[in-house]
Amino acid sequence: MTHFPRFALAFSMNCVLTIMLTCALPAHAQTAAETIYGEAITEDDIEQRTKLNFLSTHKQSARQDVINELADDKNKIKEAEKLGADLANAHVDDAFAKMCLRMRVAPEQLTKSLEGQGIRLDALKNRIKADMARASLARLR
What we know:
141 residues, mainly alpha, Triger factor/SurA peptide-binding fold, two-stranded antiparallel sheet, 6 helices
């Protein structure tokens, strides 16, 4: 019986150490796959955009194509903002609401449908923001 407290203590310490090490490691989804203009493109960004592209095209995108697309999005957003384009979240939300109207679906329904396919709403809104930036650049030039 005298060995049990030592075993329990050693086991508890091992569990605590494992938890601490696990928490200290960066999550795979947040690991930067690429850094573009000082901004990270994470594995999660790539996964989300890949799923979104597949949903809209029904074709699997090559990883590098997705990375290039995300990098181009970041570039266009920065460029449009430098030229004074208003890409505030309220405008993105409004564009999302208009998209839902065109699709004749409630925003909550579209959000739920996306989530059912493993796509977060922010992935779609990031793409909408990039599309707004491209449209702004076309008007401003």
